[in-house]
């Protein structure tokens, strides 16, 4: 096990290259099952969720060849298993995309209830609603989800809530169903559009991704393709937060500015200077940040995954901010860690009232989940001393080479191995 040791206070300056989007990659990798041929997937981030997805594909019988650190060739022609191992599916929330993809190709799938960040209940009723509307039967017993169908038939599905996961899983199951599927009240996130684009490259007929109605005309078969995953908007937003809180000046490369609009709008309102180019963006901050009101919402609203990072920024703003979490019931657990650093934040249900303080102080911190962990890194970069962050495996689920990228920007951050006997004593 490792911890991060961070001495705060260095303004971040220089250039950072953003990796591929985790939340697109974890759906596109299962989608290769539908292609039943060779897919070359580029711009894959080197993170543990991607490695677990590749491992699942390999255990199901896919041949996988690494072409470069971020490009893999995946051949699913000889896949011969529709059951995802318990151990791997529980490592990440996104293992549920194997349900849609395996159901779509083989008419059956078995996946354990997914893991992922503890943000409160993470129901999958809307995924199952879509599968049953397409003609599948489902059962959830002893933590195992099973779906099966003799035949999948296109259907008109109206989602009760806007769900990224259910939208993408329904797309995976429907692309080879017989006839037309209409999905209404769908999520419009960039990764939904990315999955649709990738499926279309494999021969699917998906229209409307990015709006709230997606139409899918089922095709008889799909084929291999070459596809490059979009850049990760949340990784980009996290480096923007790190630049802003340290009053730095950072240029981000390999980004799509349009995808970052909800984030750049709030960062500008907080006083950051942002210059946008075709595939890069420069952010600098020369003053104490201004307070904001933020409510997380489905895209194009402010993304829930940036909420912990923005709360850290606002914890040192000049005034009172209100942060409302509109997606998850329990995404303020990290606030107790920030309070240990001297932040003044009151949480009442889904609302945090953040009274900005002048300075955060170092503390021993835990990465309670992926974005909370990244938020702790950003907070520690601004603190006036040395902080240590434990449980960094959560952070490695979603940020490739975070330590090396921050070091290159001038941050004083180190990965330190925790000796095994220290871990045992602490347990
Ligand atoms: C719309 C939204 O912002 N989705 C976020 C959600 O995606 P993720 O796909 O994990 O979650 P969903 O979009 O499915 O969930 C959104 C909301 O719908 C509810 N729900 C979902 C599925 C279902 O079957 N039944 C149900 O009631 C959830 O409880 C939640 O309140 O978390 C990810 C990780 O933080 C983020 O990257 C996504 O941006
Ligand atoms: C919470 C996240 O991931 P997951 O849904 O995979 O747990 C995230 O990407 O912020």
Automatic annotation (TrEMBL):
Active site: 117
Coiled-coil features, chain-numbered ranges: none
Modified residues (2-(S-cysteinyl)pyruvic acid O-phosphothioketal): 117
Alphabetical list of SUPFAM superfamilies matching this protein: EPT/RTPC-like
EC top class, as a word: transferase
Pathway: Cell wall biogenesis; peptidoglycan biosynthesis
Compartments in which it is found: Cytoplasm
Reactions performed catalytically: phosphoenolpyruvate + UDP-N-acetyl-alpha-D-glucosamine = UDP-N-acetyl-3-O-(1-carboxyvinyl)-alpha-D-glucosamine + phosphate
Keywords, alphabetical: Cell cycle, Cell division, Cell shape, Cell wall biogenesis/degradation, Cytoplasm, Peptidoglycan synthesis, Pyruvate, Transferase
Documented EC number(s): 2.5.1.7
Pfam families: EPSP_synthase
Binding site for UDP-N-acetyl-alpha-D-glucosamine: 93, 122-126, 305, 327
Molecular functions per Gene Ontology: UDP-N-acetylglucosamine 1-carboxyvinyltransferase activity
Residue ranges of every copy of the Enolpyruvate transferase domain listed in the record: 7-406
Primary subcellular site in the record, as a coarse category: cytoplasm
Keyword Transferase appears in the UniProt entry: yes
Residues the record lists as binding phosphoenolpyruvate: 22-23
Signal peptide (from-to): none
Role noted for this protein: Cell wall formation. Adds enolpyruvyl to UDP-N-acetylglucosamine.
Similarity remark: Belongs to the EPSP synthase family. MurA subfamily.
NCBIfam families on file: murA, PRK09369.1, PRK12830.1
Entry protein name: UDP-N-acetylglucosamine 1-carboxyvinyltransferase
Protein source organism: Gemmiger gallinarum
């Amino acid at each position: 096990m490792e911890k991060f040791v961070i001495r705060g206070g260095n303004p971040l300056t220089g250039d950072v290259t953003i990796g591929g989007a985790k939340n697109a990659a974890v759906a596109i990798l299962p989608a290769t099952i539908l292609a039943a041929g060779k897919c070359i997937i580029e711009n894959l981030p080197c993170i543990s969720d991607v490695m677990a997805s590749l491992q699942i594909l390999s255990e199901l019988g896919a041949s996988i060849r690494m072409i470069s650190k971020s490009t893999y060739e995946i051949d699913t022609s000889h896949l011969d298993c529709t059951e995802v191992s318990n151990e791997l599916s529980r490592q990440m929330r996104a293992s549920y995309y194997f349900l849609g993809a395996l159901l779509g190709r083989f008419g059956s799938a078995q996946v354990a209830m997914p893991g992922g960040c503890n943000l409160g209940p993470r129901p999958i009723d809307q995924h199952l609603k879509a599968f049953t509307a397409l003609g599948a039967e489902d059962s959830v017993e002893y933590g195992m989800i099973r779906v099966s169908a003799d035949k999948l038939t296109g259907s008109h599905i109206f989602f009760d809530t806007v769900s990224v996961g259910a939208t993408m899983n329904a797309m995976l199951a429907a692309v080879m169903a017989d006839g037309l599927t209409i999905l209404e009240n769908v999520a419009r996130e960039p990764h939904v559009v990315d999955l649709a684009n990738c499926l279309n490259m494999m021969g699917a007929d998906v229209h409307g991704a990015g709006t709230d109605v997606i139409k899918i005309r089922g095709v008889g078969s799909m084929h291999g393709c070459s596809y490059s995953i979009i850049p990760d908007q949340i990784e980009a937003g996290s480096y923007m937060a790190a630049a802003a809180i340290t009053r730095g000046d950072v240029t981000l490369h390999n980004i799509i500015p349009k995808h970052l609009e909800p984030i750049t709008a709030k960062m500008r309102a907080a006083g950051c200077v942002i210059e946008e180019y075709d595939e890069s963006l420069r952010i600098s901050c020369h003053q104490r940040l201004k307070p904001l009101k933020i409510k997380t919402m489905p895209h194009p609203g402010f993304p829930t995954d940036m909420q912990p990072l923005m709360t850290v920024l606002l914890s040192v703003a000049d005034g009172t901010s209100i942060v409302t979490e509109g997606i998850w019931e329990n995404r303020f657990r990290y606030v107790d860690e920030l309070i240990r650093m001297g932040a003044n934040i009151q949480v009442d249900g889904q609302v945090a009232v953040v009274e900005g303080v002048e300075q955060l102080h170092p503390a021993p911190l835990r990465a309670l989940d992926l974005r909370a962990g990244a938020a702790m890194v950003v907070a520690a970069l601004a603190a006036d001393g040395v902080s240590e962050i434990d449980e960094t495996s959560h952070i490695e689920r979603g940020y490739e080479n975070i330590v090396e990228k921050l070091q290159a920007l001038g941050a004083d951050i180190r990965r330190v191995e925790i000796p095994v006997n220290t871990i045992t004593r602490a347990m």
